[in-house]
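ok here's the first one, seq then struct tokens
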Amino acid sequence: MPSRPTRPPLSRTTTHPLYHTARKKPRRWPLVLRFIKGAIHADIAIPVLTSAIFTALIVYVNQATHQHFSLPTNTIPSISIVVGLMLVFRNSTSYDRFWQGNSHLTTAATSIRNLTRSFLTCSHLAGKEPDDVESADTERTVRLLLAIIYAVKNHLRAEWGETIPLLLPKTEVDRRRRESQSLQRAEYIDLLPPGTRGYEDHGLGLLLQLSVQIEAYIKRGHDRGWFHAPQASQLTVQLNTLVDAYGSMEQIHLTPLPVAYLIHMRQVLALFCGLLAFGLCDEMGWWSILLVTFISFTLYGIEAIGAQLEDPFGYDRNDIKMDAIIEDLRVETTVLLEQWKTGSDIFEIKYN
């Protein structure tokens, strides 16, 4: 009986579309057992512990003095409705900011993809191969497009590259920020033309500075006859969409929730957890401590999640995966640029 042919071993590559964005580490522990990475326990430890200590004090005084100063049982449900509505508004608003931030970042990446495709495909005249100067101009502009998305990330994280000195790391977040800033400078050296100087110290964002150079390239392409007028107009629209998405992300970053609402939210949570101690101390006794701790852990945890989602462009594990999204865009753009430089038939450019 003839043997069945065996399949050749699958060749595994180091990347694939959206490799960095879709990559996930295997979970060694169920989420219910995670208390450090990605959790908000450290942020709410103090208010939860304070509620537990206050409840223990109320139970002790209630049992030691036999005064029975507990609240009526119907008081707590009435207040809990108000607290629930406030938390729903808090988290829905914060998640909307998270979703909008991710949407605007995707819009910026899509605009860069569209501009890259158009620049590499259309930057020539039919039947005429571009000379070295023109090819270098196109390659330089595509690299500027890729540098723009890094400028977006650095601007939203207040990482200004060479213009603002790095601080010594005091916390883990500071250390990661310092390492990221060092990496950003290396990326800018690779993407920006030699001698490029930023003007962040003068108040000009790097993205706007680079967008001027992209607009100048579109004009040069129109003057050379590469882009007809409607096409040049569409390229400018794509560039405007990119800048508009950048402005929307900047608005999310610079417009926090009103401080009056945040103060009132914290005060209401503290008052509610305090009233729980009075409402449960008579019936539950020392078990009130456990119940109040659990309720305060739940309420303060929901509020802390909303606080993290409020500005989704940082380094928290619950923030947008900006580094992964931008790295995937860099891989895509680099592959297209390398294929264009080697004359690959992916662009179907044929010269007679």
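and now the second one, same deal
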Amino acid sequence: MLNILPAKEIYLQGNEHALLLLHSFTSHTRDMKTVATALHNQGYTCYAPLYRGHGTHPEQLLHYQVDDWWQDVVNAHQFLLDEGYQKISVIGLSIGGIFALKLAQLERLKQIIVLSVPFDKEPEQLKQRIIDYAHNYKTIEGKPPLQIAQEMEPFENMPLHAMNVFQTFIQATMEQLDRIIIPIAIYYGEKDDALYTQSAETIYQHVHSSRKQKKGFGNSKHLMTLGRDQEAIIKEMIEFLQI
């Protein structure tokens, strides 16, 4: 049976401008590895924390919820402050984008870039993401179908309460978009669900940033930082961060 190595945080020290890179829900820091490497090569300090329960056996996800992952983001931001960085920008993918928006409402950031951000998510959809992740993980491990079916029961029987809290967190963040006044870039994949195109427009219209841009990428699905537009997205990020 295949033993999948757990993911790790990424910390690449560079100049005085630190980038906090936030991965998506049920994924891990590989979402940001190529981006972090490319931006570090441009001189930036890059830090991608790993949310609790992510990047390891899916059973770990059952022990945490959105408030824990948000606290991980708050702690990561504080880590950069403690390291002496006063110029901090945030790049967030999917739920990482939600966290970036939330952080921009509460802290002094230089700029943010958000990708594939949902303006709402049904609790059932969020639960299904965990179920799909768990099933795929166990399949990759090479477990037999009967064992997988037995091990999937806790995921299938997971109560929706934590997912309701998750949905409320997203909605509350979206209701405070007018508090964002720093430069923001909003990217979405044109091959992703139409919800994300709509969400990008919602964010664009409601933030109070004097410098804001919205851009769709024609070859991208949801995990934009890993897709076919990866190079073009990194190029856009570099241009946006340098202004």
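notes on #2: The mean pLDDT is 96. The first helix runs from residue 30 to 41.
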